[in-house]
Amino acid sequence: MQALNTFLLSFIPIFVAVDSIGNIPLFVSLVEGTTKKERRKIIVQSVTTATVVAVAFMFVGRWVLNFVGITISDFQIAGGALLFVISMRLLLPTQSKGFLVDSREKDIGVFPLGTPLITGPAVLTTTLMMLDSFGPAFTFASLVVNMFVVWITLVKSDTIMKIMGANGTRAFAKIMYILLAAIGVMMVRKGVIGLIGR
What we know:
Number of domains: 1
Number of helices: 7
Structural class: mainly alpha
Distance between the termini: 34 Å
Radius of gyration: 17 Å
Helix content: over 70%
């Protein structure tokens, strides 16, 4: 039971940061006009890219921080502020995740879907925080399960859009962005407490 609780505590923040449901409308618009075979290829590319980037950063990110002399408290404050700013931009009525997309690339599974839409600054920052709080095993498991959830939502995107509708997916995304903002505030708070306690 303790292991399940720890897993859920590491899974939920990453789930909020990944925002698998909120990515669906943009995914549908990006793959519009593609065949089923092309769409399957894009989904595999995007989930693979997102997973590789997140896992690589999970193991290399800490080393990079140590190399440049950044403490966990420093990263918590900067990362929390970044999460808050991103969530605020996404919560604005005139903004969407489209502001993260510069152009429609040929390999949209890699960019912009794989990164930065699935695995972006929010996911990378949250992953390092979960790594520090719950260790590599639970963080890795949470990442893998979250990417499996992403794969399911992309494969079933048309069905989900029919059930929830465009307004439903947008409303769900807004709730996730509010939670993301709250997580950002929590990270800043922990970072400040960590600096004060040094």
